[in-house]
């Protein structure tokens, strides 16, 4: 009985020791996917790991050297539970510089700094030694020897040299200190290396799948650009997205599946509505809040057909092989959409007529702020895009058309007092002229305007508009014209302004003379 008890007591510590020392496993999961955003890259690694029942310390290597422990997400298959990620392991190598070139430059500069400081100290001591021995002991002045004369010559020669070498070393040391101060922040950034330790508890021994995700923040790994290509008629438009893909992860990509995302990763905050308070103190309140620069007119009736479904996510069809630090150009499949061409003329601003096309079904596209425009294979220029439009058409400018000629002439500029009134009146009349030199019928949107009053004492009245649609808020006049080939059309609009005689209102530009219209 006693012997059996001793055996049990001896066996117990071994059992406890087996439970307290975790099983150690090393794994290097291959890179399985890269998801590239506009401001960084998300990487995925995956492997199958042999775990023992109980605690396991899984040493993971082959990760990006730019990875921080706080950015790592580890997912284990069924039967395994991640307890924590341990970045303090004695068997792991010490942290490595995140930017080795900067760290190497800092090391060389620091070594040179120590050398120069040693030189300066030696020069200082040599100068002090020479100056301390420039006088002779008393009673020996009459017995100068050749040795004393050589010492004097050495003093005359060496002291200027010491001064020159000291100035050179001090100047170089100042430059080194500036360089060190500039490179120090970048060189001091280190990573935990390409290794992480995962402490895992397994319910039973077996093979378990490990999936790792982390995000590396860097500038413009995917830099997209958009080409808008319209045919000669402007009725068919292709949206072609191309861009530069950069591998800034610190790992080589070997036939790696890549997904391109057309937005940035950012913190998402829930908007909060706070009370709009008014008081007499003029305190710091929310006020009106955000206000758009435009007012919505009309309604969007939607589409009977399908919309473009380009989306924010695009999987590159072929795996990508790209060395760390490498770049390559990618072109995404084009999206073709129907369009409705229309000409736009604003003769008050320009005598040129612009061809624009209205694209339908564009809502599924992810548009940048600017795009390069091509019309019938010819580069037109750059255009601004706004995907926050509230209607169902995206307007794309395709350039100017000299085959449409517009003119704007002033027919009347009356100015005088209103009888039996304290008012003064100005009456202006303009004629707009349009000529279609195309061999086909065209549709033209013609714009002009009348002034709007910002004072209640100034009264503006439209007397004639030739069928234009008037926006009373902005004073804009709009004509939608259909012009057969070779025809011209004349439009007249007239307005008058009444205002107090004792006030000055600048309306008429007297330097503009009244002239006959072009097509009269």
UniProtKB/TrEMBL annotation:
Q: Does the keyword Lipoprotein apply?
A: no
Keyword Signal found: yes
Give residue ranges for domain DUF4139. 210-501
Please list the residue ranges annotated as the DUF4140 domain. 34-130
InterPro entries found in the cross-reference section:
CHP02231 (IPR011935), DUF4139 (IPR037291), DUF4140 (IPR025554)
- Signal peptide positions (record): 1-18
- Record's superkingdom? Bacteria
Task: From the UniProt record, list the coiled-coil ranges.
Answer: 106-133
Instruction: List the keywords (alphabetical).
Output: Coiled coil, Signal
Q: What is this protein called?
A: DUF4139 domain-containing protein
Which species is this UniProt entry from?
Hymenobacter polaris
């Amino acid at each position: 009985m006693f012997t059996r008890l001793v055996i049990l007591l001896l066996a117990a510590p071994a059992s406890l020791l087996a439970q307290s020392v975790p099983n150690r496993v090393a794994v290097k999961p291959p890179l399985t996917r890269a998801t590239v955003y506009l401001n960084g890259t998300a990487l995925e690694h995956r492997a199958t790991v042999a775990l023992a029942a109980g605690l396991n310390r899984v040493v993971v290597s082959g990760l990006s050297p730019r990875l921080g422990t706080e950015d790592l997400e580890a997912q284990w298959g069924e039967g395994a539970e991640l307890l924590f990620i341990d970045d303090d392991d004695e068997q792991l190598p010490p942290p490595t510089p995140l930017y080795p070139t900067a760290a190497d430059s800092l090391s060389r500069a620091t070594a040179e700094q120590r050398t120069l400081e040693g030189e300066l100290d030696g020069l200082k001591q040599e100068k002090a030694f020479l100056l301390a021995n420039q006088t002779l002991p008393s009673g020996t002045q009459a017995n100068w020897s050749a040795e004393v004369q050589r010492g004097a010559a050495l003093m005359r020669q060496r002291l200027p040299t010491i001064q020159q070498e000291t100035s050179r070393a001090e100047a170089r040391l100042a430059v080194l200190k500036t360089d060190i101060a500039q490179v120090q922040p970048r060189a001091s950034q280190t990573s935990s290396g390409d290794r992480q330790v995962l402490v895992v508890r397994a319910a039973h021994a077996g093979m378990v799948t490990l999936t790792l995700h982390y995000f590396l923040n860097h500038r413009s790994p995917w830099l997209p650009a958009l080409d808008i290509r319209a045919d000669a008629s402007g009725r068919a438009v292709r949206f072609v997205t191309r861009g530069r893909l950069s591998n800034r992860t610190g790992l080589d990509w070997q036939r790696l599946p890549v997904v391109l995302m057309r937005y940035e990763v950012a913190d998402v905050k829930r908007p909060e509505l706070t009370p709009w308070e008014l008081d007499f103190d003029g305190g710091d309140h929310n006020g009106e809040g955000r206000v758009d620069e435009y007012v919505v007119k009309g309604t969007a009736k939607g589409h009977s057909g399908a919309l473009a479904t380009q989306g924010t996510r695009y999987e590159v069809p072929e795996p990508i092989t790209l060395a760390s630090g490498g770049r390559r150009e990618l072109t995404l499949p084009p999206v073709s959409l129907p369009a409705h061409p229309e000409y736009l003329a604003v003769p008050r601003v320009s005598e040129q007529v612009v061809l624009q096309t209205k694209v339908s079904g564009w809502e599924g596209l992810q548009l940048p702020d600017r795009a390069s425009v091509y019309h019938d294979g010819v580069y037109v220029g750059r255009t601004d895009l706004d995907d926050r439009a509230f209607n169902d058409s995206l307007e794309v400018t395709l350039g100017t058309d000299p085959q449409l000629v517009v003119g704007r002439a002033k027919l009347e500029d009356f100015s005088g007092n209103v009888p039996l009134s304290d008012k003064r009146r100005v009456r202006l009349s303009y004629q707009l002229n349009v000529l279609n030199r195309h061999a086909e019928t065209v549709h033209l949107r013609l714009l002009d305007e009348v002034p709007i009053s910002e004072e209640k004492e100034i009264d503006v009245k439209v007397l004639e508009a030739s069928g234009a649609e008037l926006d009373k808020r902005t004073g804009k006049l709009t004509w939608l014209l259909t012009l057969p080939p070779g025809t011209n059309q004349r439009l007249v609009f007239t307005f008058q302004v009444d205002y107090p005689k004792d006030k000055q209102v600048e309306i008429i530009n007297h330097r503009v003379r009244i002239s006959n219209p072009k097509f009269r």
